[in-house]
Amino acid sequence: MAKIFLVDDEPNIIKVLSQILQDEEHIIFSASNGAEAIEFLKKNEPDLIFLDVWLPDADGLQLLETIKKEKPDIAVIMISGHGSIDIAVKSTKIGAYDFLEKPPSLERVVTVVNNALESVRLRRENLKLRKESRFDDEMIGKSMLMEEIREIIEKAAATNARVFITGKNGTGKELIAKAIYRKSKRSDKPFIKVNCAAIPDELIESELFGHEKGAFTGAVARRIGKFEQADGGTLFLDEICDMSASAQAKVLRVLQEQELERVGGTETIKVDVRIISATNIDVKKAVEKNEFREDLYYRLNVIPIHIPSLSERKEDIPDLVCYFMKKFSEEHGIVEKRISASGMDFLSHYAWPGNIRELKNLMERASIMIPSDEIGADDLKKYVEANESYQEIYMTDKSSLKLAKEDFEKKYIESALEKNKGNITLTAKDIGIERTNLHRKIKQYNIENSGYSDDE
């Protein structure tokens, strides 16, 4: 659903366009002259404007120029009953998304509107990403392992080669992917992320490749998939080994042929996308178990990057701690705290099962909650012990606690599923997690799911 503003002095054109666009469930506003249009735009921010070239009180091209200067994010489609190539070219140069001759056909209107709105959405997403990038974490650390990763990033960024990032949860796989993107020749194009583990198997293909209206129950409008959204840019497939077998086959085809079809569609769409993949599992074991396609793995694994766990590069902890303390001081507008010698010793010996994500979380909590300017070991230990992932500081065998927790969670989910007669939706509500998360847990723990239903 989008807000669309129609500016035309012909009531029949307003009526026809309104009917077409309202059938597509858009919200329609209209004006019959330039003065009304300018007044409307002072108070409103539509997603798309249909603008007549000839208005009774204004030159449509001059009005287009004003709109693009003051509101560049709004897509404008010019319309005219006296169309010419010269006018169409001028419109495009000024910034119009497209040019339509009156009377426009239904199919043409729907296609142009869908494409224009998708362009607006992608532009806004990219702008949001650029704003958020100012607050993204940096790659901190002078250890040999980190220096090696920086060298690989520099080499990878200079090419369009596919990159496969491995590493445990919390090590910074997305950070590496964004670093490659920002240094690449595609940095002015979209960076689109997909968390494959968070999307149910039945929806992953629609998410990646898009779908046509009516392709399945609930497909009330055409949806542009992530591959199309990332056209010309970079697609980051996080937790790729959680992708369904059917989706893996289709991704392989896109990589081979650089083209795709939306779910329920027949049109072949060309795409130019750089793929960066990531996973926290042992990919080779997944391939051996036929859980991940070997041919897809070799297609994706052109440039491999393995990120070490924090426990493998503890010499970087002091630099990371200083970075986070400074970052949160600026972010929250508080005095920058210091970590005492005993506090740093504690942090350097802790096991860090949650890796850098856990360290970042602890530093933010400590910088906000601990009142003194200097933070010691006792202060930190109190907050570490509050974490579910806490382990004794010098504990050497860490696997037993993790296995016990996983065994309890699996039995708890199985019990809840049995109680709710295999209904996924009701079970998710009962145990207080998202339905997509429950699907992932069922897959993670290999829980037998025959007879389970998503219906309420």
Weakly predicted, low-confidence segments: 388-401
How does the helix and strand content classify structurally?
alpha/beta
What characterizes the major β-sheet?
Answer: 5 strands, parallel
> What is the CATH class of the largest domain?
Alpha Beta
Instruction: Assign the CATH topology of the largest domain.
Output: Rossmann fold
**What is the overall number of helices?**
19
Q: What strand order characterises the main sheet? A: 2-1-3-6-7
* CATH architecture assignment of the largest domain: 3-Layer(aba) Sandwich
Alpha carbon gap, first and last residue: 26 Å
Task: Indicate the radius of gyration in whole angstroms.
Answer: 27 Å
How would you portray this structure in words?
The longest helix has 28 residues, at 106-133. Mean pLDDT is 86; it is low at 388-401. Helix 1 links the parallel strand 1 and strand 2. The chain contains 19 helices and 16 strands. The chain has helices at residues 11-23, 34-43, 60-70, 85-94, 106-133, 144-157, 173-183, 201-209, 226-229, 245-257, 283-288, 294-300, 317-332, 341-349, 355-369, 377-385, 399-419, 424-431, 435-444, and strands at 3-7, 27-31, 48-52, 54-55, 58-59, 75-80, 98-101, 163-166, 191-195, 234-238, 259-260, 269-270, 274-279, 303-306, 338-339, 374-375. It starts with a strand and ends in a 12-residue tail after the last helix. It has 456 residues and is α/β, with parallel strands linked by helices. Helix 14 (341-349) packs parallel to helix 16 and helix 18 (424-431) packs across helix 19. The protein folds into 4 domains: 3-130, Response regulator (Rossmann fold, 3-Layer(aba) Sandwich); 147-307, 3-Layer(aba) Sandwich (Rossmann fold); 311-385, Orthogonal Bundle (Helicase, Ruva Protein, domain 3); 399-444, Arc Repressor Mutant, subunit A.
